[in-house]
Structures are given as C-alpha cells and as structure tokens.
Amino acid sequence: MDITFRLLDPEELPIILPLVAILNPSLPADVLAQRLQHMRHHGYRCMGGFGNNTLVAMCGLWSGTKFYCGRYMEVDNVFVHPAQRCSGIGQRMMESVEILARKEGCDVLMLDTYVTNTRSHKFYTSQDFETIGYHMNKNLDGSRYFAGK
Fold first, then answer.
1. How many other C-beta atoms are found inside a 10 Å radius of the C-beta of residue 98?
2. Does 144 map to a domain?
3. For the segment 39-84, what is each residue's pLDDT rounded down to a tens digit?
4. pLDDT in tens, 88-137
5. What's CA 102's distance to the chain center, in Å?
6. The pLDDT of residue 83
7. CB 73 within 8 A of CB 63
C-alpha cells in the first residue's frame, strides 16, 4: 500500500480518534474527544499517514523550547494500525516528522515511551533516539499506571 504523510489541518483532527481509541481502550470516546479539543488549544498537531484515503498511521506533535536542548519537537501517541505494522510505515512517518522538525528549526526530536513497551524501545533506538532520563508522573487522584510494578 502506498502511504502519504502530511500534517492534518486542525479541523481534521477528529479523524484520529478511532486510532487513539485503539491506543487507549479504557477511555470512553467522549473523554478522548474532549481531551483532543483541549489539546488543540494548547498547540497539539498531528502527522497522519494515509493509504487509499484512509488514516492508517498517526503521531501527535508538540513544539517548544527547553533550557537543556533548545527548540524541540515532541512526538506523542505514535501509532500504526495493527494491520499495517512491520511494513516500514513507522520509519517513514518518523522520517517525515524529522523533515518537518528540521524545517521548523528544531534542534531535537523527543518522545516518551512506556517502560513496558520494549518493542517501541527497539524501534526508537533503531531510529537513533537515545535514552537520556526518566519521565515520571504522579497521579493526583492516587491512581497508578502500572500497579504492582
């Protein structure tokens, strides 16, 4: 399947919700839609991968500046539809993101990945990402992401 990658227009962003729901099966669709609306107002963008006019891959994008690294683009919620995995789509999407980041004057691409997602660790390492620290959360409601770990 021939895949094309492009930034989604802000009004197109709701088309990502079915893929986001696969990534977040425990969250109701209305919660995901509300969060997307909030994220849009805080600079969220999305790269989409289309095959036969169907969204088969996506990744969210955030941009900013930090003292330690300068201008950055953060890649968020990288997802390739399960039927399309292991076909090079993820690599091509990350190449498209890198081109965009360079065009926008970014010095760094960054991302978070769950410690339990070892498959993604292998993929990102193959894309020349390096582990430089830990991303840590404290849920203010007392809940845990990985209870017992």
1. 16
2. no
3. 999 999 999 999 999 999 999 999 999 999 999 999 999 999 888 8
4. 899 999 999 999 999 999 999 999 998 888 999 999 999 999 999 888 88
5. 17
6. 83
7. yes
Overall domain count for the chain:
1
Distance CA 37, CA 68 (A): 30
Q: Domain range for residue 63?
A: 3-126
How are beta strands 70-80 and 108-111 bridged, if at all? parallel
Considering only CA atoms, which of 5, 32, 31 is closest in space to residue 19?
Answer: 32
